[in-house]
Inverse folding.
């Protein structure tokens, strides 16, 4: 318990909602709190209440980052197609880009959220009691740029 906040409890419903929405963003190649292709699950409240109707208080954090240890905006990288049809992403010295570990990726995303006012408010909101998270790797078939991971964090209180 830090900052006087209670530990959030895991919610299977929120986890299911977050994982589903991350998959939708990855599959349909969009990013944002409003779902452009599903009217009944358009907003975070719609999505969360579809799984947990009695919930009263909700929140959502989103992130989209590369699983590689790079800054997408400033990175110089090359894509190499291998003989077996797979691809490698190389840095400017033609060395393979370094992947995050699970821990370093979680730390990286959390640091980014803590550095953003709205995301930080969700993370430190004392009204939330439950948490669920999900992620999905983008579904591009022809890699013309670095793959991205879509991350969804849902919060709620009954």
């Amino acid at each position: 318990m830090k900052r006087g906040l209670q530990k959030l409890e895991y919610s299977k419903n929120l986890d299911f909602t977050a994982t589903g929405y991350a998959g939708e963003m990855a599959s349909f190649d969009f990013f944002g709190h409003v779902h452009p292709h599903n009217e009944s699950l358009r907003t975070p409240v719609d999505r969360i209440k579809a799984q947990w109707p009695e919930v009263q208080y909700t929140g959502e954090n989103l992130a989209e980052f590369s699983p590689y240890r790079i800054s997408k905006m400033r990175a110089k990288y090359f894509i190499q197609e291998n003989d077996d049809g797979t691809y490698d992403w190389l840095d400017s010295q033609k060395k393979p880009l370094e992947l995050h570990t699970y821990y370093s990726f979680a730390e990286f995303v959390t640091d980014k959220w803590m550095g953003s006012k709205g995301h930080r408010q969700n993370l430190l909101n004392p009204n939330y009691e439950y948490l669920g998270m999900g992620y999905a790797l983008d579904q591009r078939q022809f890699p013309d740029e670095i793959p991205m991971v879509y991350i969804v964090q849902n919060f709620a209180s009954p």
